[in-house]
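Need tokens for this chain, all 271 residues.
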Amino acid sequence: MKVPVFTTTGSKDGELELPLVFSTPIRNELIHKAYVHLESHSFQRQGRYPNAGMDVVAESNSPPTGHHQARVARMAGGGGGRQGQAGGVAMTRKGRQAHPPTSERIIHKMLNKKENRLALCSALAATTSSTLVKLRGHKVDKIESFPVVVSDQIESVVKSKDLVKVLDALHLSQDVDRLRSRLKGRSGKPLLRGRKTKVGKSVLFVVKDSKNLSKASHSLLGVDVVSAKSLSVLDLAPGATPVRLTVFSKGAIEEISKIKSPHLEILVANK
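Here are the structure tokens for all 271 residues:
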């Protein structure tokens, strides 16, 4: 499968034969499983204070019958406050949890290496499908071929204004502008916890060296940059929904062609 290679100004610079990885059968269930398992690696363990809800002076009636009230432990003391209220047990107001989460619980989901590699190959193959890219909501009206491949000049872009010109030349700015209308202020807990706005995902640049380009993309909504060596299903299919609008550099394609899978040639042959 051949795709055209574009320069940073939008002009064609020959064609490139995509490696075998891009012919892998697309398996949505495998991509979803890999995403769920890999996402668990970033979770933070949760626990509870062992004496939460139990730092109270409460005793049950002794003997516990004949008082015309429940036998649950009640607060000691006098003078108002919580005196006489039930406490110290799970079923009461401000009581402890019955089975609180513990930090010892294993929340890290393991994933087979070959399964992870095959899911990555499947996600890469999905970038060649214009139907899947459109189903995700990307605006790709003027883009003729997928995936978009750019010359290695893209890796020398340092400033955001230069990257904006590249996006305009490649007809990708329409997808970045799509996110501006979706920005809405959030109230309540998200606002208090520093999540004032929720930004969607736009163009993903996959390059060989992301040092310069990542600096230029910081101020652009939804634009991310990742190196080919650290590429993951988390980057290609956010929310486990394939697939994201992706732009590859020629150097990144060469790195991706080094991905080896023992079953890859068999799968492509039987496709």
